[in-house]
Amino acid sequence: xxxxxxxxxxxxxxxxxxxxxxxxxxxxxxxxxxxxxxxxxxxxxxxxxxxxxxxxxxxxxxxxxxxxxxxxxxxxxxxxxxxxxxxxxxxxxxxxxxxxxxxxxxxxxxxxxxxxxxxxxxxxxxxxxxxxxxxxxxxxxxxxxxxxxxxxxxxxxxxxxxxxxxxxxxxxxxxxxxxxxxxxxxxxxxxxxxxxxxxxxxxxxxxxxxxxxxxxxxxxxxxxxxxxxxxxxxxxxxxxxxxxxxxxxxxxxxxxxx
Length: 258
Ligand code: PEP
Hints:
43% helix, globular, TIM Barrel, alpha/beta, 10 helices, binds phosphoenolpyruvate, 8-stranded parallel β-barrel
């Protein structure tokens, strides 16, 4: 394993800009005394907090990059309420979550739109974090492998010929925000499938993250899975202590995993 772990905090629709500044400062303070040298860390706040969070990161020279939780695939125009990749790029956003299951299920984000959005990110020098994952029906019905392979393939086909890195986040829907984490065997199986699918599309070196109820008491085990290169974290990223603890455990485990 030679990919440096990547840990992304998805703050979802939590924290106004004052609260977000406070949280990123707390993370910065805790990182001073916790190991983190072996990992890359990203925080993805709500759009309205990005500028403030980026300013704190820059001013305090924090070892963090800024991400966003969504972006529109189009360049500009009469699309009320939307934000473009070029706008995020100007805010120094380096990563964007694309097709998070909450966007797919609650905001009708289709596979085609996910693919177009990932392509828009690449065109603007932003790394798309393409989220895939089956729901509990697919898992129980035994179609989870085909489902995830198809979800990923439709995006990878669309990205053919486009330069730039992508990240894939495997997030089984039944594990997101439920406290029910996938077993290491389940994550191992799905991450191998994702790695093979990425390789078929000349993207075999991409980071694969796991997301779904990652906590301080399961992160160290999950990060040892051969094809898992980090985490996308919701709930446990809302508190500086638990987020930095997961960062630090991942950083410590990376040496052993190599
Ligand atoms: C997420 O929403 O991407 C996520 C993984 O959430 P949680 O960690 O709370 O399950």
